[in-house]
Every structure is written in structure tokens, then in C-alpha cells.
Amino acid sequence: MENTVEGAPGAHGTLVTTGDGRFALRFERRLGHPRAKVWRALTEADQLRAWFAQILDYDRFRLDPRAGAEIAFVPRAGLGLPAGRGEVLRADPPRLLEYTWDAETLRWELEADGETGCLLVLTNIFGDRDSAVALGAGWHAGLDLLAALLDGRPAEPPAMEPLLAGYERALG
């Protein structure tokens, strides 16, 4: 089963059912930047704070991109959210980073694309089908912010309502 979001700005996500009954939401983005630069944006807290999950406290968040390393997903104070845990499953800088975030798995692949660019493929594997719409819209918005960060453009988070509506039509 495959569903895609039509008409959403930027590259949309694709949802498939995995062989073990979970779900994989996959995004592809062509970025006009070398893999090493994108890798830093995926692994360094000072860059993650500009585009990644806005619920995290990046002064206490820890990600060591080495296989077997533990990850601490520490939420910002006042949100009333529990801390998340993760583990780096695979790391091959600057090509592959795969880690867990509680029950989810995030896989980041970077392939060279032309002289100076790269293709970023993000796959988010999760178990609850009802999470697909929110995850799709959230990653879509985050990847738009990542592209702006890499390009050196100022960016505000995209309006979530249209993204949620587009993902609801496609995946809901």
C-alpha cells in the first residue's frame, strides 16, 4: 500500500506498510549542498535546533553519531513531555545515520547528487497508523526548514494547517 500527498509544497512523503506490519513514511529531498554539510545539519545540536523537532531542549539533547551510542531526547521545560530515549543503530558518515527514538526508527541516507549536491532520503518507521498524518506534516515542515538552513535563507515554520490537510487527504 502506498499513499502520497499531492499538491503539498516541497517534496511530499510516501507511506508504505512494512513487512512486519509497521509503517514507513519516506521523504526524498534534493539538496544543493555536499553530504558533509548536510551530515552536520543532521547531527550537530546547534544546527538541529533550527529545523528538527521544536519540542527538544538542544542544550541537553545528546546525539553521538556512532553505532551503539545512546541518544537523549530531552524536551523543553514546561511542555510536560517525558524524555525520549534512542540508540544509534547504524552510522556511516556522511552517508547513513539510523537511530531509534523510543519505538520509532529514523533512517537518514545521503547520496551524492551531481558535483556539489546530495539526495537526502528520510525514512521514519513507526507502529501506529494514526500517527502518519501528523508525522508526515511534521517531517515535511522540518525538511523545508532544513533546506532553508542549508541555503542560508531565513525561514519561518510552514503553516501546519495546509500540510495537515494535505496529509489527511492522502494518508488519513
Query: Looking across the biggest beta sheet, what order are the strands in?
Result: 1-2-3-8-7-6-5-4
CATH topology: Alpha-D-Glucose-1,6-Bisphosphate, Chain A, domain 4
Secondary structure: number of strands:
8
Order of helices and strands: EEEHHEEEEEHH
Task: Provide the structure class.
Answer: alpha+beta
Q: How would you characterize the largest beta sheet?
A: 8 strands, antiparallel
CATH architecture descriptor name: 2-Layer Sandwich
The global form is globular
Range of helix content: 25-40%
CATH superfamily: START domain
Task: Quote the average pLDDT.
Answer: 92
Low-confidence stretches: 1-9
The total number of structural domains is 1
Query: In oligomeric terms, what are we looking at?
Result: single chain
Count the DSSP helices: 4
Rounded to an integer in angstroms, the radius of gyration calculated over CA atoms is 15 Å
Percent in strands: 25-35%
Terminal CA distance reads 13 Å
According to CATH, what is the class?
Alpha Beta
